[in-house]
Description:
By secondary structure, this protein is an alpha+beta fold. The chain contains four helices and four strands. Helix 3 links the parallel strand 3 (87-92) and strand 4 (117-120). Helix 1 (6-23) packs antiparallel against helix 2 (42-56). The longest helix is centred in the N-terminal third of the chain and has 18 residues, at 6-23. The radius of gyration is 15 Å and the shape is globular.
Amino acid sequence: MVTYSEEDVRRFTEQQNRNRAIAIGEKPAHIPADAVEAGQEVSVLHKAIKDLCVSLGWQYFYNQPHKRSTATKGQPDFIIAASRGRTYYVEAKAGTGRLSEDQQCVKEQLEANGHILHVVRSMSEFKELI
């Protein structure tokens, strides 16, 4: 049986995220906390969150809201598998945007199972969360 050190797993995950980002045309970057603030388009916030996850070596699953998909209705924009076994369910909203009825239902189901759906409106809010 082959065993891997935490450092090996971290490097593998980081490389996997980098490869995925390159494959879909993204360039990982270090994003300062105030790079995306309230009032900016949600697509800018989505990109900043993805870039930060890649730079940290975190695996993320992204539901592209503007593309037709087979994702569950109400699924959060991001499910992030962070370091130390942490998982974040994140919905990014612009300005005063509210959860849809489907998103509210998913939020309630997550909470019933001991999880939290985090709604963020800026990169500062996201960085506070993590």
